[in-house]
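Final report, section 2: Outcomes. Of the targets proposed, Membrane protein is the one most frequently requested by collaborating groups, and we therefore present its record in full.
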Amino acid sequence: MEVLVQWFTDNLSQFISAEMVIFIISMVPILELRGGLLAASLLKIPAATAIPICIIGNIIPIPFILLFIRQIFKLMKKTKIFHGLIEKLENRAMGKSDQIKKYEFWGLMLFVGIPLPGTGAWTGALIASLLEVDIKKSSLAILGGIIMATVIMYVVSYGLVGNIVH
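The predicted structure is given below as tokens.
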């Protein structure tokens, strides 16, 4: 993840503001808020500025995923080009869904909130959509997970990494 964050930071910061860089990074799957806060600490953006930008960037794609991803996947699976890719994405997401199936709200919140590879708001929203979890329940769980991830990544990015880098 650090390599991707560095690449985005190096390549985007020449053209747009540092705040816009972290906003975009926070919207990108895989990187999300975790990458945005890491980039913010590297770009020396104060945490009070970075946190709301990263949260908003991470939240923006979620309603679209929850509302439309099943229909989009259904259409894409009808094409030869995307059928295999969509099957792979669905299988990968569902392979991580055990705790969400078992604990639903709390499982989804923990899945989104604990910043490990393959977890996060994008994957959590995809799994919730595929499992047809109630949209209100899944939205609240994902928001709670994003807040949890924010606290953890703040400590890591501005505490541990921030002290090493600065």
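Residues 33 and 140 are 17 Å apart (CA to CA).
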